Amino acid sequence: MLSPTIQVLDVIKRFGNKTVLDRVRLDVIEGETLVILGGSGSGKSTLLRMMIGNLKPDEGDIEVYGKSLGKMSVEELTAYRTSIGVLFQSGALFNSMSVADNVALPLREHTDLPDETIQIMVKIKLELVGLREHAEKMPAELSGGMKKRAGLARAIALDPKILFYDEPSAGLDPVTSHEIDNLIKDLNDKLGVTSVVVTHEMDSAFRIASRMVLLDGGKFVVSGTPLEMRESTDPLVRQFVHGLTEGPLTDRRRGGGYERDLLGENI
Ligand SMILES: Nc1ncnc2c1ncn2[C@@H]1O[C@H](COP(=O)(O)OP(=O)(O)OP(=O)(O)O)[C@@H](O)[C@H]1O
Ligand SMILES: [Mg+2]
Predict the structure, then answer these.
(1) 245 contact partners, CB below 8 Å, separation of at least 6
(2) What is the pLDDT of residues 217-240, one digit of tens each?
(3) Which residue among 25, 55, 92, 99 has the highest number of C-beta atoms inside a 10 angstrom radius?
């Protein structure tokens, strides 16, 4: 029996009077690549931020390896954060540092390793993402795809057990996006990590996922293997997965009370 690495337990998150996540439950299983799908504004990034301990749920809890994030001390939370890797949408590199120094940063901050060892580790990580020859470049000299690779090299600097990605292929051309997907799969296989990927790029989702979940209306409406999702007859899943212009998602947007809004009535 595979054990859950992360358990999202009845999490509620509100911003103002808007309930973004409404009693969300989710298990992330060890070694899987879980893709979280959902429309823009459905709360994917919010959920990811809670799973990495950057944002607290209003209600409910998130457990990692059986330990509640909400009950962790500051030291425990810091230890958790250094045990995971996160690739943010922009790559989030420090512009004043070379690629190599960006990757070395977590090693310098969180280990006592001598600099020669750090240099070697940085080379290994850059080789893994195909950027070894660009180690001395500055972020401004990199293309979007190279920035993602550099961000990924930094995310794996401390050999994380869990990797989180927020929209890893957003803004990339289809070939570069495919390459990043291959890299995500490769890292999953080579490093044996558990991966959680937030995306709305369906091609990418189908390439990397071992399991997919669809977030809608603050809840997970479905979970399945890529094949199950592709063959699903659920109208919402069908519209999302196949990018159809007709279906529950667009019906909902159109039925937004436009006339009442124009007349100044509350909607
Ligand atoms: N810090 C915040 N303060 C107020 N509202 C927020 C905050 N963060 C997110 N929201 C709101 O919560 C909802 C979900 O946002 P979130 O960024 O999680 O969506 P998403 O699914 O990641 O969307 P996208 O696909 O566009 O990235 C949105 O309506 C957003 O405006
Ligand atoms: Mg987002």
Answers:
(1) none
(2) 888 888 899 999 999 888 888 888
(3) 99
